[in-house]
Write a structure and sequence with these properties.
The complex is a heterodimer of chains A (about 180) and B (about 600). Chain A is α+β, with helices and mostly antiparallel strands. Chain A contains eight helices and four strands, in the order ααααβααβββαα. Chain B is α/β, with parallel strands linked by helices and about 600 residues long. Chain B folds into four domains: about 1-75, Roll (Ubiquitin-like (UB roll)); about 125-205, 2-Layer Sandwich (Alpha-Beta Plaits), CATH 3.30.70.20; about 210-270 and about 330-400, Rossmann fold; about 275-325 and about 415-580, Fe-only Hydrogenase (Larger Subunit), Chain L, domain 3. Chain B has helices at about 20-25, 75-95, 110-115, 150-160, 195-200, 210-215, 250-260, 265-290, 305-315, 330-345, 360-365, 385-395, 415-420, 425-440, 490-505, 530-545, 560-570, 575-580; strands at about 1-5, 10-15, 50, 60, 70-75, 130-135, 140, 165-170, 175, 205, 225-230, 265, 300, 350-360, 380-385, 460-465, 480-490, 510-515. The chains are: A alpha+beta (about 180), B alpha/beta (about 600).
Chain lengths: ~180, ~600
């Protein structure tokens, strides 16, 4: 499985983000690893996203070329799955569930609170590159609705009024499962 | 074999047959908007739903194989209601500006709504977002009209192996188009227009030159001439209700005169010229290879099909040196009309407008290539598809079916039967062999009716070899040579052939490539809808046209002989190179 988003290190010796050219170069290794495996395209895209944080168009093109598939086909795959992003993402990806259960239990209000708090719209990233706001369609945790997924952690019964606290805990690295324990 | 009952009628069909195919074989029409002959079922449109006894839900007949003792009702009240509902939902997000749509007369969705008796639209909802892409010279796409049936996706990726169009995004936001919903010019589209040929609605159409041609015809002092590709005469009649395969050369000529063209000429003339130039080039490449030991000159590929040229420039640049340097007959015609013919009538190239009628959308791209200006201005000004010409004829009020048969003008309207067969797969090769074999041996090509039977027909990749014996003294280096040839049509077949050559080397001397399945008679600009039966009939019409000509070989065309005497000197002369040959470049979108 690809590494989680938290651990991506663009460069071993510094925090400088990779240029798109450098990403494309690294894509060749990813392609070599996956291209002969059945169903290897999606794992390769996941690996690329976990390494680079997102999938810029040149990366999608390079992976398409490497797999001998058309650019339009691979972009179709990338744009189909909401887990793939073609824009740079923040350190934390916040996905607000708007599946049926979460929706009726206030998912929309949670989303509005996050938009207001972060000052971004869905799909956007805060200027400090800390948070990216996105929506999801059911994470399979309907019994705990409304839920918000931040990177790999599901936060349950999220209350719009306590969004600030949640974000602070996430940023300071305080036990990310606190919310679940409290419930 | 499987026994089943459809609408009370017992049927026996082979195992693996779908309900849709079984019904069609029994003369029961189940409508569909996404079915494509010869392709795996898409199951995208849901229009072909039928009732299968014992099944919980209605089944998509295109993707459900028949089973023993199956009882199917294709037009039960339940099936009809569901079908109507599916179409109502499609219409709810479809941009329904039918009177101004290019597909007004030929829209499959519109015809289906009619046959289902839809009288009002019960659903009001969001419409698909309009985004018109006119970035390429050949095609215009309008997402608001797209019903996401994915026929274009299947034909572009599976038949043509180009893959320019794929579904992007998901759900209601799905758009069928190039990567990241950008314009077509941003991806390696060859502009063959097969997507426009299979689109059931007006979401992909050719970029129209009709208004520009009317304007040229109405410009005082401007000499406007027209050339028609060989494939048009075997298909134009379909636009006026004639069955596929009707030959309308004479009526078409009469119609073009009525439209006001000052010269009604024939791309066939320059097809004959192409054979002289390309045949001579082939013999030159053979001589340099066999006598001088030159490497890399063979095989030689034909160069008439501009979609194939785009395909090679994007995907197979290593083969560009092997493509004949001959321009396509369309471009040769433009160059000759604006130089040789212009001087004959005492006009400058600027005073002449050359219009083509092509079965092709890629020809619109080809005409605007910067290399295609041998006369100093664009050699071909406007390119009409077969469909656009039919529209002009309708607009002019000419009653096509009651027109007399007329002859084309001289000298650029004179052609041999070899030129006619440029319209179908195997035809350019056969035309070239008729001339080359005779030049080398002094004898006629040794096939019945001059047809090279192994390369006739719709098989995807065809090959043959021709033993060359008892040559004339000046061709002694060809004595005993087995000339190996291959023919491919459809770019998917072409990709398979090229991959094979790339990995195994080429045993061939000469290879004909046509972009579209069946060749030009199946082009992206032809009357809809083209399937293999229609292709077969059009090809039969083309061979009949060829066999009906008094002259069957390009080198015997007196007008071609005359132009060499008066103007070009001999094939591959310096003048010929300047006007009739070109070069290719590797390219990226």
């Amino acid at each position: 499985m690809p590494k989680s988003l938290d651990s991506f290190a663009p460069c071993a010796c510094c925090d400088r983000p990779l240029t798109e050219e450098e990403m494309v170069t690294r894509c060749h290794e990813i392609v070599q690893e996956y291209k002969d495996k059945p169903g290897g395209l999606i794992p390769a895209l996941q690996m690329a996203q976990s390494l680079f944080g997102y999938l810029p168009k040149p990366v999608v093109k390079a992976i398409a070329d490497g797999f001998g598939k058309s650019y339009s086909e691979v972009s179709g795959v990338v744009s189909f799955y909401s887990f793939f992003s073609t824009r740079p993402r923040g350190k934390f990806l916040i996905r607000v569930c708007l599946g049926t259960a979460c929706y009726v239990r206030g998912g929309k209000d949670v989303l509005e609170a996050l938009k207001k708090k972060l000052g971004v719209e869905v799909g956007e990233t805060t200027p400090d590159r800390n948070f990216t706001l996105d929506v999801g369609r059911c994470f399979g945790a309907c019994g705990m609705a409304p839920v918000v997924m931040i990177n790999d952690t599901v936060h349950q019964r999220v209350k719009p009024g306590r969004i600030g606290e949640l974000l602070t805990r996430v940023l300071t690295g305080e036990n990310p499962t606190a919310e679940r324990e409290r419930a | 074999m499987i026994n089943l009952t459809i609408n009370g009628k017992p049927l026996t069909v082979p195992e693996g047959t779908t309900i849709l195919e079984a019904a069609r074989s029994a003369g029961i029409a189940i409508p569909t908007l996404c079915y494509l002959e010869g392709r795996p079922p898409l199951g995208a449109c849901r229009v072909c739903l039928v009732e299968v006894e014992g099944a919980r839900t209605l089944m998509a007949s295109c993707s459900t194989p028949v089973a023993e003792n199956m009882i199917v009702r294709t037009h039960s009240a339940r099936a009809r209601a569901a079908r109507r509902r599916v179409v109502e939902l499609l219409l709810s997000e479809h941009d329904g500006n039918c009177p101004t749509c290019d597909r007004n007369r030929t829209c499959e969705l519109r015809a289906l709504a009619d046959s289902l008796g839809i009288e009002r639209l019960p659903f009001e909802g969001s419409k698909a977002r309009r985004r018109v892409d006119s970035s390429t010279p050949a095609l215009v796409r309008d997402n608001a009209k797209c019903i996401k049936c994915r026929r274009c996706v299947a034909v572009c990726s599976e038949v043509q192996s180009v893959g320019a169009l794929f579904p992007q995004n998901r759900g209601f936001d799905t758009l069928i188009g190039p990567a990241f919903t950008q314009d077509l010019e941003g991806v390696a589209c060859v502009q063959c227009g097969q997507c426009a040929a299979v689109c059931p609605v007006g979401a992909i159409v050719e970029k129209s030159h009709v208004e520009a041609v009317w304007k040229a015809l109405e410009t005082p002092g401007q000499v406007v001439v027209i050339q028609t590709a060989p494939a048009i005469r075997a298909s134009l009649g379909e636009e006026f209700g004639l069955p596929p395969g009707s030959r309308v050369t004479g009526k078409m000529t009469a119609a073009l005169r009525r439209l006001g063209f000052h010269g009604v000429f024939d791309t066939n003339f320059t097809a004959d010229l192409t054979i002289l130039e390309e045949g001579t080039e082939l013999l030159g490449r053979l001589r340099r290879t066999l006598v001088d030991g030159a490497k890399g000159l063979l095989p030689m590929f034909t160069s008439c099909s501009p979609g194939w040229i785009n395909f090679a420039e994007y995907y197979y640049p290593q083969f560009l040196p092997n493509i004949s340097t001959c321009k396509s007959p369309q471009q040769m015609f433009g160059a000759i009309a604006k130089t040789y013919w212009a001087s004959k009538i005492g006009k400058s190239p600027q005073q002449i407008t050359v219009v083509s009628v092509m079965p092709c959308t890629a020809k619109k791209f080809e005409a605007q290539r910067p290399e295609m200006t041998a006369s100093g201005v664009p050699d071909v000004d406007f390119v009409l598809t077969t469909r656009e010409l039919a529209r002009m004829i309708r607009e002019s009020g000419v009653d096509f079916l009651s027109l007399p048969e007329e002859e084309m003008d001289v000298p650029l309207g004179i052609s041999s039967g070899a030129a006619d067969i440029f319209a179908n797969t195997g035809g350019v090769m056969e035309a070239a062999l008729r001339t080359v074999y005779e030049i080398v041996t002094g004898r006629e090509l040794p096939f019945e009716k001059l047809h090279v039977t192994p390369i006739v027909g719709l098989a995807g990749i065809k090959e043959a070899s021709l033993s060359i014996r008892n040559v004339k003294p000046e061709w002694s280096f060809l004595e005993g040579v087995e000339l190996k040839i291959a023919v491919s049509h459809g770019l998917g077949n072409t990709r398979r052939l090229l991959e094979h050559l790339k990995n195994n080397g080429s045993p061939y001397h000469f290879i004909e490539i046509m972009t579209c399945p069946g060749g030009c008679i199946g082009g992206g600009g032809q009357p809809r809808f083209t399937n293999d039966e229609v292709r077969t009939r059009r090809i039969a019409a083309i061979y009949a046209e060829d066999e009906g000509k008094p002259i069957r070989k390009s080198h015997e065309n007196p007008a071609v002989q005359q132009i060499y005497r008066e103007y070009l000197g001999k094939p591959n002369s310096e003048t010929a190179h300047r006007l009739l040959h070109t070069h290719y470049h590797p390219k990226q979108p």
